[in-house]
């Protein structure tokens, strides 16, 4: 083989390997969802997730502040339910794959039945709507993006 073909051969080989690797190990697209549709009584919100995480240059942890040592962020609603009611009390115990998650709210890894003093103080844990509005708006206020009285339909579908 003539020397001048070596670079092109090398490039072809690299692409071939990349193609096979891409076929065998497809990127886990769901790890950074393109869009997240958030249905709610104010009108559905289509959140441009990938644009926020990629083009606007934020880190995952800027929004996913769970700090629970899981590889994949969990839904905000796992910790910010519509209400801290009976449904939450039962279902949230299955939302996490690590004990570390429990310690985000409980003083110790909980064992049912909980003593009264082991029940988390929910005063400082915003409910679902406040968690979303709070995070979306406070960042938009400082960095740009829709917020404030007249901004509703820049996020919500009519
Ligand atoms: C600007 C804020 C923001 C950034 C930055 C961000 N996310 Fe998200 N992400 C969200 C919101 C809001 C949701 C919707 C959660 C919900 O529906 O409860 C979400 C949902 C997700 C979900 C789906 C969770 C589920 O089970 O419903 C995954 C996975 C995810 N993000 C991963 C990532 C990764 C990985 C990064 C970093 C590359 C990242 N996110 C960066 C705000 C963000
Ligand atoms: C593993 C549980 C957990 C998950 C998941 C979680 N949070 Fe939180 N969040 C909390 C707790 C607990 C607090 C109370 C204050 C604190 O301890 O940080 C809180 C506080 C907040 C606050 C008010 C304080 C602050 O930091 O501004 C906002 C807003 C918020 N969360 C939004 C979100 C959004 C949006 C998501 C999803 C992208 C999310 N949270 C995911 C547990 C969680
Ligand atoms: C976002 C905060 C949060 C996280 C994270 C969390 N919990 Fe809880 N947990 C609560 C709240 C709030 C209650 C209800 C307290 C009350 O009844 O006053 C509760 C109650 C409980 C109860 C009592 C249920 C009942 O019927 O009274 C158990 C058991 C429990 N949690 C286990 C867990 C386990 C296990 C984990 C981790 C896998 C976990 N929790 C993670 C907030 C949380
Ligand atoms: C950490 C910061 C941050 C958070 C959190 C955040 N945004 Fe944004 N958002 C931005 C920035 C920056 C822009 C771009 C502003 C510009 O270029 O004018 C933007 C733009 C937007 C826009 C207009 C352009 C587009 O991409 O669609 C919408 C709609 C939007 N955000 C929705 C949301 C929603 C819904 C949430 C909460 C679930 C959210 N954002 C949370 C930073 C943030
Ligand atoms: C930056 C985007 C954004 C803007 C701007 C915005 N919202 Fe929202 N809103 C959301 C998201 C995301 C949710 C989803 C929270 C949830 O699932 O409960 C939501 C939820 C709601 C809900 C349902 C709450 C519940 O308890 O079910 C109402 C009502 C609402 N918004 C009204 C408004 C009004 C009124 C305005 C204008 C003053 C507004 N929103 C502006 C993103 C936005």
Please tell me about this protein's structure:
This protein has a single domain, classed as Cytochrome C3 (Alpha-Beta Complex). Helices cover 39% and strands 4% of the residues. It is built from seven helices and two strands. A two-stranded antiparallel ribbon has the order 1-2. A hairpin with a 6-residue loop joins β1 (36-38) and β2. The longest helix has 20 residues, at 5-24. It binds heme C (HEC) (5 copies). The site of one heme C has 20 residues, from α6. Residues 45, 47-48, 51-52, 56, 58, 62-63, 132, 135-136, 139-140, 143-146, 154-155 line the site of one heme C.
CATH superfamily placement: Cytochrome C3
Indicate how many domains the architecture comprises: 1
CATH architecture: Alpha-Beta Complex
Major β-sheet profile: 2 strands, antiparallel
As residue ranges, the low-confidence spans are none
Strand order of the largest sheet: 1-2
Gyration radius from CA atoms, angstroms: 22 Å
Report the end-to-end length measured between terminal Cα atoms.
66 Å
Number of helices: 7
What class do helices, strands and sheet pairing give? mainly alpha
Q: What is the string of SSEs from the N terminus onward?
A: HEEHHHHHH
The shape, in one word, is extended
β-strand number = 2
The CATH class is identified as Alpha Beta
CATH topology term: Cytochrome C3
Mean pLDDT across the residues is 87
Q: Strand fraction band?
A: under 5%
Helix content: 25-40%
